[in-house]
From TrEMBL:
<feature type="domain" description="FIST">
    <location>
        <begin position="25"/>
        <end position="218"/>
    </location>
</feature>
<dbReference type="InterPro" id="IPR013702">
    <property type="entry name" value="FIST_domain_N"/>
</dbReference>
<protein>
    <submittedName>
        <fullName>FIST signal transduction protein</fullName>
    </submittedName>
</protein>
<dbReference type="InterPro" id="IPR019494">
    <property type="entry name" value="FIST_C"/>
</dbReference>
<dbReference type="Pfam" id="PF10442">
    <property type="entry name" value="FIST_C"/>
</dbReference>
<feature type="domain" description="FIST C-domain">
    <location>
        <begin position="219"/>
        <end position="358"/>
    </location>
</feature>
<dbReference type="Pfam" id="PF08495">
    <property type="entry name" value="FIST"/>
</dbReference>
Length: 383
C-alpha cells in the first residue's frame, strides 16, 4: 500500500506533501477541500489526469487536514495504491420524500457483499439525518463489514455541502467506497472529551432529529438562555455547547450538535436523532480534554491492528472542536501524530458528523463533536 499526497492553496498552488516516488497506479484518491476549490474544474482535472484509473471520493469541509496542518479554503488529495485490496465506488442522490434510512439501505445494497471488508462513506451534511443513514447502511451490510465516514461541512455557515464521487460533485449526494480483501486491516477510534454541565432535562417533544421541547418548555428558548449574547450567532454558537443524549434504558450517551434553528417553529434540527423520552444535558469542552480525546481515539484505532504501523490515518473531527480549539486546533492533530508515528500519512477534514463504532464489537453510529480515526494498512503475504 503506497501513498502520494498533495496539498493545494491559493497562495502556493499544488505542493507535494509526501516524498517523491515513482508514479502511482492509484485505485483511490481521497479529496477534502472547500466548496470553491472542489468546484474549480481546473484543479479537479489536474487530479484526474494524474490518476486516471482512480476513484475520486471527497467532500466539502469545515477545515482540511493534511499531515499535522489544518487549513481552510484549501484542497488535500491523497492517492492510494493498494497491493492486495480492490475498490468499488457507488453514489446515490437523495430522492424527495425518501428517508435517510432508505437512502442508506439503497446505498448499502449497491455494493457486492462478498469479501467487503470496509465501507467508507461521505454524505451531504445538511439534508441527511445521519443517525437514520447509518442505521440503513448497517442493516444491509454484511455483519463482518466495518463502517466509518462523515458528514460533509460548510465551515460555520451551515448553508450547503458538497460530495464528490468521480465525475459527480453536488449537494444532496451520498457516496462511498467499498474496500475488498482479507489483507486489509482497519482500525477505528472515536472519542470526544466534552464534559456535561447544568441540569438534566427530558425531551418531551421531538420528531426524529428535530427538537421542540425539553421538560415541556421551548427547547430553543432554553438553549438561548444558556448561550446569552452568543444566541445571536446560532446555529454556529451551538457548536460550543452540544447536547449529551441518553436514550431510555441505554448505558451510555451520544453527543448531538445543531445544524439549524427554526424561529417560527421554535425548533432545532440536529445532525442525528434526539428521541422523545431521552435525557439530555448541555456539554462544554476544554482545550486539554479535547486534545486528550483525540489522542485516546488514535490509541484505540491502533488496538485493532497488528504490530505493524498504519500506512494511512483518516481523521474526521467535528467543526465544534475546531471552534473551541481555535488557533491551537493543530495540537489535536499533533496528538494523533504522536500516537500513530511519523511513517503514517494523515488526511481528513472537519465535519458536521462522524460515523464509526463507539467501541469494539459495537455497530457503527453517528457521532458529533468527536475525533474519529480510521487507520488502514495491508498485511504483507508471508514469505
Amino acid at each position: 500500500m503506497d501513498i502520494e499526497q498533495f496539498h493545494w492553496t491559493v497562495s502556493h498552488g499544488w505542493r507535494l506533501q509526501s516524498p517523491a516516488q515513482a508514479k502511482l497506479s492509484a485505485q483511490l484518491v481521497l479529496i477534502f477541500g472547500s466548496a470553491s476549490a472542489l468546484q474549480d474544474l481546473t484543479l479537479m482535472q489536474q487530479v484526474r489526469s494524474a490518476y486516471p484509473q482512480a476513484t475520486l471520493l471527497g467532500c466539502s469541509t469545515a477545515g482540511e487536514i493534511c499531515d499535522t496542518w489544518v487549513r481552510d479554503q484549501s484542497l488535500v488529495a491523497t492517492a492510494i495504491e493498494f497491493e492486495y485490496t480492490t475498490v468499488q465506488s457507488r453514489a446515490i442522490e437523495l430522492i424527495p420524500g425518501e428517508s435517510s434510512y432508505e437512502a442508506g439501505k439503497r446505498l448499502a445494497q449497491a455494493f457486492e457483499a462478498e469479501d467487503l471488508t470496509h465501507l467508507f462513506v461521505l454524505s451531504d451534511g445538511i439534508q441527511v439525518n445521519g443517525s437514520d443513514l447509518v442505521r440503513g447502511l448497517m442493516a444491509h451490510l454484511p455483519p463482518e463489514t466495518t463502517l466509518t465516514g462523515g458528514l460533509s461541512g460548510d465551515g460555520d455557515r451551515f448553508q450547503e455541502t458538497w460530495v464528490l464521487c468521480d465525475q459527480v460533485l453536488q449537494p444532496g449526494l451520498i457516496a462511498a467506497v467499498g474496500l475488498y480483501g482479507d489483507r486489509l486491516q482497519v482500525g477505528v477510534g472515536s472519542l470526544g472529551g466534552w464534559a456535561p454541565f447544568g441540569p438534566k432535562r427530558t425531551i418531551t417533544k421531538s420528531i426524529n432529529n428535530v427538537l421542540y421541547e425539553l421538560d415541556g418548555q421551548s427547547a430553543l428558548a432554553l438553549y438561548k438562555n444558556y448561550l446569552g449574547e452568543q444566541a445571536a450567532d446560532l446555529p454556529a454558537a451551538g457548536l460550543l455547547f452540544p447536547l449529551s443524549v441518553r436514550l431510555e434504558g441505554a448505558s451510555r450517551t451520544v453527543v448531538r450538535t445543531i445544524l439549524s434553528v427554526d424561529e417560527a417553529a421554535q425548533s432545532m434540527t440536529f445532525a442525528g436523532d434526539v428521541p422523545q423520552g431521552a435525557t439530555v444535558q448541555l456539554m462544554r469542552g476544554s482545550f486539554n480534554r479535547l486534545v486528550d480525546g483525540a489522542i485516546a481515539a488514535a490509541e484505540t484505532s491502533l488496538a485493532h491492528l497488528s504490530a505493524q504501523p498504519p500506512t494511512l490515518a483518516i481523521l474526521i473531527s467535528c467543526v465544534g472542536r475546531k471552534l473551541v480549539l481555535k488557533q491551537r486546533v493543530e495540537e489535536e492533530v499533533e496528538g494523533v501524530r504522536s500516537v500513530v508515528g511519523e511513517q503514517t500519512y494523515l488526511t481528513g477534514f472537519y465535519s458536521y458528523g462522524e460515523i464509526a463504532p463507539a467501541a469494539e464489537g459495537c455497530s457503527a453510529e453517528l457521532h458529533n463533536q468527536t475525533m474519529t480515526i480510521t487507520t488502514l494498512t495491508e498485511q504483507a503475504l508471508a514469505k
